[in-house]
Amino acid sequence: MTFFLVFLIGVLTGLRSLTPVAATAWATHFGWLKLPRLLAWIGTTPAAAIFTVLALLELISDKLPKTPSRTAPPGLIARLLMGGFAGACLATGRGQGAILGILVAIVGALIGTFAGYQLRTRSVKALRVPDFVIALVEDLVAIGCSLWIVSLRF
Length: 154
Hints:
- The protein has one domain.
- The chain is built from 7 helices and no strands.
- The chain has helices spanning about 1-15, 20-30, 35-40, 45-60, 75-95, 100-125, 130-150.
- The longest helix is centred in the C-terminal third of the chain and has 30 residues, at about 100-125.
- The chain starts with a helix and ends with a helix.
- The model has no long low-confidence stretch (mean pLDDT about 95).
């Protein structure tokens, strides 16, 4: 179950690179995830606040017309790095290995990045709605599902 959730957090990172990390930071801050010392800094108030501000800025910049595609190298690299980081945190917080968590989340981030891009562009065309509308739905999915995953207790 843990690695399925790690995979999903990676997929969500493919949608919004910083939202799952911000959710992970707050989950650690509130004690929902107990991380090893090397990763525990993410749960500090300053780290959680910084990741939250960065995630909010990403949500805003995603709607701007000149924002590059998530599949372009800078966005893709950010998604892989953040996905791996969130995956390491989630895996170790659930008593599993960090390396496997990183790898599983990176696979999820790759899938989420390219599937999310295709789903968004095809939805805009099929539904004949502005990109902004689909982007907002994508935001809600990334936020809601990220919070749900990091709050699960088992």
